Amino acid sequence: MTPEEFRRFGHQLIDLIGDYRESCAAGDRPVLAAQQPGALLQALPDEPPESAEPFAAVLADLERLILPGCTGWQDPRFFAFFPSNSLPAAVLGDLASTGLAQLGLNWEASPALTELEQRMCEWMRQALALPASFGGTITDAASSATLVAAICAREHALGFPASGSGSQQLAHPLIVYASAQSHSSVQKAVLLAGYGQENLRIIAVDGKFAMQPDALAQQVRADLAAGLKPCAVIASCGTTATTALDPIDSIAAVCAEHGLWLHVDAAMAGSAMIVPEYRWMWRGIERADSLVINPHKWLGASFDCSLYFVRDPRLLMRVMSSNPSYLQSPQDTATRNYRDWGIPLGRRFRALKLWFLLREQGLAGLRARMRRDVANAAWLAGQVGASEHWRVLAPVPLQTVCVRHEPPQLSGSALDEHTHGWVREINASGEAYLTPAKLGDRWMVRVSIGSASTERRHVEALWQNMQRVANRRLTK
Fold first, then answer.
1. Does residue 232 contact residue 261 with C-beta atoms inside 8 Å?
2. Closest listed residue to residue 398, CA positions, set 261, 253, 271, 305
3. Is the pTM of this model over 0.90?
4. Residue whose C-alpha is closest to residue 211's, from 245, 257, 243
5. pLDDT band, very low/low/confident/very high, at 167 (cuts 50, 70, 90)
6. DSSP state of 209
7. Is the sign of the CA dihedral 69, 75, 78, 82 positive or negative?
8. CB of 231 closer than 8 Å to CB of 289
9. Strand duo 442-448 + 400-405: pairing
10. Which runs of E-coded beta strand occur in 288-421?
11. Is pLDDT of 257 > 70?
12. CA dihedral over 443, 181, 215, 173, signed as positive or negative
């Protein structure tokens, strides 16, 4: 492809993406891709092309084959999973990142990549009102950050044995604590960091689905009495199912008493902490040893862009540093090398999309959107709570509303079937996309509000649709 062809096809691709997003915003496409399993596989050749194809054909197939199989994450009627806003400025930042083709191995490999990442982490630290001592790095996802936290906690508890004999012969098994509402990545991190699944303690939650500090303290004391070694607590600021808020300050007090590492998973909710009046939700965060937020969720950065902050960067670098001879440079002592802040040796220029986003939106613009989403969630919760046979199942501090339609004639598995039935019908219609989840022993529906283009009218239309479909299914 010549430079001129690159420019021409690049313009065409931008136009295609723009048209696609415009059609999503207008509701011209089904929110959930209306495609059967295997449809794309059948449409694609079994073998790679031997000869080059015109790139115009590639763009045509992108529109013909790929777009119909794309779920409308940027559609204002998308209420599933969590917000994953990829605002246009961030899209362009991602394009610049790929187009400039920088690879961060050390500062010398790309000074711009390293120093922009450093500045963006500092901007976000200030926006979140974290202490100046906290240092940050940009990684791919919260799952990776939680794994790094679990490894750092292990090394800290054992006196950093990995650089020597390792931790193969533990006299006292290390114990990690989390609640049943924590993300599934916690279990994976415990497994991959070598703790063993049987050494993960699940702590009871209260009526708001938040971890109980007293139960945590009791379990820590019991493990100590049993000759075990409590190591780390993984708390949540905004759990996946209900956006429950673990009491960080009280949990931090337990950790301080027993010398435990405290990691806070604020993957989705953390972005909201740029709004001053929401910061009560993670009171005590300055006492955490590490935390993660995902700007690629609610904030608006394109996936992947996850921020991992640590209270003491020196400890992180002690665990993660690598210094092969071919990466050493005269600038090492005067610059930051992010290969020493995480697992990968190389890194993408992720900071560009965050830089583009923050400059194009400004904190004021981002805060306004989050306040809008929280207000829309509060409105929906009020409507559900005031309606006969509908129930809000969990507090609504942020933008997720957990609901269930509970007609008196249904209970147990029949109620679960009803819940799945009306959700499937809405999703299959293409008019909205919701995700069911289990809360306790019963299924419910999460309404996750937060797509960049979602306004009150879209939430109102969803609520009308939910009532209409759920009631109609009862009469069948």
1. yes
2. 271
3. yes
4. 245
5. low
6. S
7. positive
8. no
9. antiparallel
10. 290-293, 306-310, 390-392, 400-405
11. yes
12. positive
